[in-house]
Amino acid sequence: xxxxxxxxxxxxxxxxxxxxxxxxxxxxxxxxxxxxxxxxxxxxxxxxxxxxxxxxxxxxxxxxxxxxxxxxxxxxxxxxxxxxxxxxxxxxxxxxxxxxxxxxxxxxxxxxxxxxxxxxxxxxxxxxxxxxxxxxxxxxxxxxxxxxxxxxxxxxxxxxxxxxxxxxxxxxxxxxxxxxxxxxxxxxxxxxxxxxxxxxxxxxxxxxxxxxxxxxxxxxxxxxxxxxxxxxxxxxxxxxxxxxxxxxxxxxxxxxxxxxxxxxxxxxxxxxxxxxxxxxxxxxxxxxxxxxxxxxxxxxxxxxxxxxxxxxxxxxxxxxxxxxxxxxxxxxxxxxxxxxxxxxxxxxxxxxxxxxxxxxxxxxxxxxxxxxxxxxxxxxxxxxxxxxxxxx
Length: 392
Ligand SMILES: Cc1cc2nc3c(=O)[nH]c(=O)nc-3n(C[C@H](O)[C@H](O)[C@H](O)COP(=O)(O)OP(=O)(O)OC[C@H]3O[C@@H](n4cnc5c(N)ncnc54)[C@H](O)[C@@H]3O)c2cc1C
What we know:
alpha+beta, ten-stranded mixed β-sheet, D-Amino Acid Oxidase, Chain A, domain 2, 30% strand, 12 helices, single chain, eight-stranded mixed β-sheet, binds flavin-adenine dinucleotide, FAD/NAD(P)-binding domain
């Protein structure tokens, strides 16, 4: 059986659902969102970078483009929550600790230019403000109290999908197995059988899109391993001494850099502080390696490092249990997402989110939707900055 669509979005992750929502706003049921939902039981599906409860959101950033993407997206969080009736945003603020005060001052300035309220603090002032955090005496600190905190990526994705459907868009729970481009459009064969014929398609399949060959051209992307650790804390601690904990970024010496969320309630009914890192850049080079990495518990050396960070930064916290898992991010040479036609006016890609796009999925998804419609990017953004040519 062949299903038809004017606009097909492959991938129901954070970018795909955001692009679907923006496309459905103008094209309603001409939009089809394709991808697997959450994995159920032992079923193997390509996973996304959102099967979790916490992603840090902030405007302060070293790169003005990322700061603008974040500002646009964060400004629309509350409206999306109200319209979808799916809450996903907690404004607990962001505390950034940095060994390099010039780098931090620059990120604060970029944030301020994008209208964020960012205050530079001494280590002593930060310790007074957050007594639970052992701020190193040598750290430069920046505090963004508003338009910052944490979002639930699963819920954010669900809210985008709810709005896509509310605007008339369609959703198909299936996996793209093969793709062909011709002069009239794109044909996608589904792993479950059947096919889709679309005038224009967007590949927004995260780490899989970088490796599975569906785009049928060389992609300037690197899929990098990431390990996250979950430190379980008692519900009393989450509601008590840790209740005011902000999201934290630590760019301290020695590397790797780390980030940490406040305790969040997970689907198993327990509270976890989630911590992750940006360290040794080890690439995953094929789909089998990516599948295996997603199914595993991450790199034991990184797990050890992250457990030590929790002990050092939150010394009074009693950890009840530890868990860890592998996840993956996709990097581009130019540090910006790749938003371009892989095959002119037929097949586009929205890939390469530098591990930074959860908070900004709305704005990046909107650019991808505009690309598919042949429209300029919003806010005067120059599309040339996001092309294959710019990525080199
Ligand atoms: C450990 C970790 C921590 C992070 N922390 C932050 C953070 O604190 N703040 C922040 O802003 N960002 C963060 N990020 C980055 C953010 O999560 C990603 O940038 C974002 O999820 C990327 O969205 P995406 O839609 O491109 O890909 P994904 O969210 O990975 O979604 C891709 C989707 O495509 C589907 N798919 C794959 N193959 C196919 C196929 N063949 N057919 C159909 N569907 C397919 C997958 O099932 C998935 O649903 C983090 C990422 C990781 C890994």
